[in-house]
Design goal:
The complex is a heterodimer. By secondary structure, chain A is an alpha+beta fold. In chain A, about 45% of the residues lie in helices and about 10% in strands. Chain A has a single domain, classed as Cytochrome P450 (Cytochrome p450, Orthogonal Bundle), CATH 1.10.630.10. In chain A, strand 6 and strand 7 form a beta hairpin. In chain A, helix 1 runs antiparallel to helix 2, helix 9 crosses helix 12 and helix 15 packs across helix 17. In chain B, the strands form 10 sheets. A 6-stranded mixed sheet of chain B has the order 7-6-5-11-25-24, with helices on one face. Chain B has a 6-stranded antiparallel sheet with strand order 28-29-32-31-30-33. A 5-stranded parallel sheet of chain B has the order 13-20-14-15-16, with helices on one face. By secondary structure, chain B is α/β, with parallel strands linked by helices. Chain B folds into 4 domains: about 60 residues, Alpha-Beta Plaits; about 190 residues, FAD/NAD(P)-binding domain; about 120 residues, FAD/NAD(P)-binding domain, CATH 3.50.50.60; about 80 residues, FAD/NAD-linked reductase, C-terminal dimerisation domain (Enolase-like, domain 1), CATH 3.30.390. In chain B, a hairpin with a 3-residue loop joins strand 2 and strand 3. In chain B, helix 3 runs parallel beside helix 8. The chains are: A alpha+beta, B alpha/beta. Chain B: Keywords: FAD, Flavoprotein, Oxidoreductase. Chain B: It comes from Nonomuraea roseoviolacea subsp. carminata.
Chain lengths: ~400, ~525
């Protein structure tokens, strides 16, 4: 099959449950040009090279041909995910200042007790039942609650932005042909989200708390401060990204573990194993399958071909992490791998901002589900998937179980 | 538990500092400092950090090696060309020697393995000695490297080698013992160059920094709160010591013979930037002068006299004038060993005084002087952590492989230094350059990439807090890409074109020994070394 046809199949929702054989076909042509002019990169080495290549831009305004209606603003305005250095670096530094090292090294670790408590409460909620949808009842509420606490969004407002965030995420993805339509749908959701966040930002400026949003609106350093527009774009990005990715990590994770019963047993006996299990999940069933908004700034010779300046570039992260030239037995789920490098969080300067948070959430919630659900079984395999090929994960994950163990003291 | 970060690989993602903030701390954007021997209570956190490292540069508990990405392909008779038996002796038990021991076992060597070390304690990691150990963030004894417990080897500590007999294939030890070998690896490294005036060097308060004992002594001297510290020499060690002193709040004067710090490694343009950073952090930096004498009072250092006639009152002086290679024990061995190191081929096989390659003697680490194809086959000796590791792996592999399966040591030199909250990294050979250009970032912001060129080709790149881009430039060097780079890229703020790199004239370490060639017929011509007085 021609690589472009393979790629079309990958985008087809019918392939959502198991795109991996198609990725293997894709890798036979590590770098190729789609009919619409997009360049697709699917092998590990080439993806890593491009993630660290300063000739690759994340700013779609650098496209030679921009589809009509493409505002190039990604998720809710200009934030560090859609900009290049030096803008990117400045915005990311101003944000990380309130979230991680060097200035706030303990923030993520300090959230651990709260994550644990939220998880316990959610799993407690399954007691008395014998069937649950882990997406709606555990995997979705946990990250939403955590990101709300972190940012300082009142929890009672959560249902309002749930819908906006969903609309934004479903509009993401590779392909240029229907991009204008998708941009349109996104614009509406984004503007509502922005209005909401603008009000919240004003409230935090007047009465700051110890949350991230308060940090963004009040901090002023040698590099100046974030403009109100930047604050809104950044917090929108964090809300959406913090929302729609971890849910996939958790549900893909539980799905994978339920398909490997021997591993469920081991995880109950070896608590440390959850750490490398989550790492292997990020390689084997990652929440984010594509990075699709990159642009070549110059002609880039790679893998025997040349990506021309101005061309859109799609990096198929999920394929790269299963590249047999990089990892042995790539289609085996093996948490005992050592020195496993993967593309689960991307790489280079746009490496996932919330990686540490996602890892901890994944470890905590999967550990509890494994320890507390008695005799868990999948109700349907494969489960129904959400339509997005980019942020790939089950829409529902129905699980039967005999009982729910009490939380460990 | 013991931890070591391969900072050659580290790109400053900081994930370890998120997940184990008590053990790993970021200084500035990307320099990471850590406790190499954290408390066992931190175990869970450290394991999380190690698993999360995006480039898998964090090693816990053992002296492990990364697997090669592609499986090693072996051709031939099925034995894989591996030498399995016999006796291998490694002289030198530090980073290169220890790493080689591990690789030998991994490669399937099942024979007898002996490691001879000069020092009495377990192998330790040197980079922390000039950083987190001086600033007392971690105790000195925490610098020990992860244990070699996987490696079955006989350790002979505290008993340095004093001679090598190529004909008898034996190593002579200080206690008179002779240890015979089938193959030997020379990895005796370097020691600090002492202050040349012996009586002055003996003054209390005069330090060098190379070993764990040096670091412990200096740390105590700094903790006593001297009125001023004098650092003699503005190379990486001297600059890092000055940085540690400033972090401790101590007044410090740094005296550098050249026009700026780091000039010897990075040239004048980048050296001046490093000098500006030092001054911004309160270092009293004196360039273009030398210390002519150290003066004491009742056996204690009081002041230094400088070549410009000035004096510096200081109670502590750190002599950071580079390193001397530990080659004395090889005198008369017939190897091409001298102040330049021990010459070897790109496969780490030692070269004898005639320039002939030996079969059973290998060299790795700071002491090895090898030809690098990428840099015009110039012989170079690299005193870098990453080189010690990479070269030890190649040497160990070649020691147990036949000719058809040997590897060349072709990795590009990479080194790093963290000072004043800035992470400096370099790939290639910055001193092989006629020009440089800042391609990405801004010198004023102290975050930039400088690319070095020589005769129209890229030969090196140096990053200040921009390490994430280093591998891209490494590939450009490997492909001999044209200089200056002519493509469009992110963060282009080029306000000036290429400028002269101002690298020092290449100084040959020729003093101390002279090569003399004798004989007329090809069969009788030979080279020999004449040693002057040290």
């Amino acid at each position: 099959m021609a690589p472009d046809d393979v790629f079309r199949q990958i985008l087809d929702p019918a392939a959502r449950a198991d795109p991996y054989p198609l990725y293997a076909e894709l890798r036979e042509t590590p770098v190729f040009r789609r009919e619409d002019g997009t360049w697709v990169v699917s092998t590990y080495r080439e993806i890593v090279e491009l993630l660290h290549d300063p000739r690759i831009s994340s700013d779609r305004r650098n496209l030679a041909h921009r589809p009509e209606g493409d505002m190039g603003e990604g998720m809710g305005g200009v934030s560090f995910i859609t900009t290049d250095p030096p803008e990117h670096d400045r915005l990311r530094r101003l944000t990380v200042r309130h979230f991680g090292p060097p200035h706030s090294p303990g923030v993520v670790e300090a959230l651990r007790p709260e994550m644990l408590a939220i998880t316990t409460e959610l799993v407690d909620g399954l007691a008395g039942k014998t069937r649950a949808d882990l997406v709606d009842e555990v995997a979705y509420p946990l990250p939403v609650t955590v990101i709300c606490r972190l940012l300082g969004v009142p929890r009672e407002d959560e249902p309002r932005f749930h819908a906006w965030a969903d609309a934004v995420v479903e509009s993401l993805g590779p392909g240029e042909e229907d991009r204008a339509e998708r941009e349109q749908a996104r614009a509406e959701a984004v503007s509502k989200l922005q209005t909401y966040l603008a009000d919240l930002a004003v409230a935090r400026r007047d009465a700051p708390g110890d949350d991230l949003l308060s940090g963004l609106v009040t901090y002023e350093g040698p590099e100046g401060r974030m403009s109100p527009v930047e604050v809104i774009a950044t917090s929108a990005l964090l809300l959406i990204a913090g929302h729609e990715t971890t849910v996939n990590l958790i549900t893909n994770g539980m799905l994978t573990l339920l398909r490997h019963p021997e591993l469920l047993k081991r995880l109950r006996a070896e608590p440390d194993l959850i750490v490398t299990t989550v790492e292997e999940l990020l390689r084997y069933e990652p929440p984010v399958h594509f990075l699709s908004s990159r642009v070549a700034l110059a002609d880039i010779p790679i893998a025997g071909t040349t990506i021309p300046a101005g061309a859109p570039v799609v990096l198929v992260l999920a394929s790269g992490s299963r590249d047999p030239a990089h990892v042995s037995h790539p289609d085996t789920f093996d948490p005992d791998r050592r020195y496993s490098e993967h593309l689960g969080f991307g790489g280079g300067i746009h490496y996932c901002f919330g990686a540490a948070l996602a890892r901890l959430e994944g470890q905590i919630v999967l550990q509890q589900l494994v320890n507390r659900l008695v005799n868990p079984r999948l109700v349907e395999d494969p489960p129904p998937y959400r339509p997005s090929a980019t942020l790939r994960g089950p829409r529902h994950l129905l699980v039967d179980f005999d009982a729910v163990n009490p939380a460990a003291p | 538990m013991r931890v070591v970060i391969d900072l050659t690989r580290c790109q400053g993602y900081g994930q370890c500092a998120y997940l184990a903030p008590e053990v790993f701390t970021m200084h500035g954007d990307e320099a990471v400092a850590y406790d190499p021997e954290p408390d066992d209570a931190q175990r869970e956190h450290v394991l999380r950090a190690a698993a999360a490292c995006p480039v898998q540069a964090l090693h816990v508990d053992r002296n492990t090696m990364r697997h090669w990405t592609a499986p090693v392909r072996r051709l031939g008779d099925g034995s894989g060309g591996i030498v399995r038996d016999g006796h291998i002796v490694i002289v030198g038990g530090s980073l290169a020697g220890g790493r080689a021991a591990g690789v030998l076992r991994r490669e399937g060597f099942t024979g007898r393995l002996t490691v001879i070390g000069e020092e009495t304690h377990e192998p330790y990691d040197r980079p922390p000695l000039s950083k987190q150990i001086l600033t007392r963030r971690v105790p000195a004894e925490h610098a020990r490297l992860p244990r070699l417990r996987e490696v079955e080897a006989e350790w002979v500590p505290g008993n340095p080698a004093t001679g090598l007999d190529l004909a008898a294939k034996s190593v002579r030890l200080a206690d008179g013992r002779e240890v015979t070998f089938d193959r030997v690896l020379i990895a005796t490294g370097t020691r600090a160059r002492p202050w040349p005036h012996e009586a002055e060097a003996a003054l209390e308060g005069v330090h060098v920094l190379r070993t764990l004992e040096d670091a412990t002594g200096l740390r105590e001297a700094l903790a006593a709160g001297p009125d001023r510290v004098l650092v003699i020499g503005g190379g990486f060690t001297g600059s890092e010591v000055a940085s540690a002193c400033r972090e401790l709040g101590l007044p410090v004067t740094l005296v550098e013979r050249g026009p700026a710090p780091l000039v010897g490694a990075l040239g004048g343009v980048i050296g001046r930037i490093a000098g500006d950073i030092q001054r911004e952090h309160g270092v009293d930096l004196r360039c273009g002068v030398t210390v002519t004498s150290l003066e004491g009072d009742a056996g204690r250092l009081r002041r230094a006299r400088l070549s410009d006639g000035s004096t510096v009152e200081a109670q502590v002086a750190v002599v950071a004038l580079g390193a001397v290679r530990n080659v004395e024990w090889l005198r008369g061995s017939g190897l091409a060993a001298g102040p330049w190191g021990v010459a070897c081929d790109a496969g780490c096989r030692a070269v004898d005084v005639n320039g002939l390659v030996t079969d059973d003697v290998f060299v790795a680490g700071d002491i090895a002087r090898f030809p690098h194809p990428v840099f015009h086959y110039q012989f170079m000796a690299l005193e870098h952590w990453g080189n010690a590791v990479a070269q030890a792996e190649v040497a160990a592999h070649n020691m147990v492989s036949d000719q058809a399966h040997r590897w060349p040591h072709l990795s590009l030199p990479v080194f790093w230094s963290s000072q004043f909250g800035v992470n400096i990294k370099s790939v290639g050979v910055p001193t092989l350059a006629d020009q440089l250009v800042v391609t990405q970032g801004s010198v004023a912001e102290r975050r930039f990439v400088a690319v070095y060129g020589y005769k129209g080709r890229i030969t090196a790149a140096v990053t200040f807090d921009q390490a994430i881009w280093l591998e891209f430039y490494q590939r450009l060097i490997e492909r001999a890409a044209p200089f200056p780079p002519d493509f469009r890229h992110v963060d282009m703020r080029r306000d000036s074109g290429p400028v002269p790199a101002e690298v020092p004239e290449r100084a040959l370490a020729g003093e101390g020994a002279t090569v003399v060639v004798t004989g007329h017929d090809p069969a009788e011509r030979s080279a020999s070394l004449l040693y002057g007085e040290p």
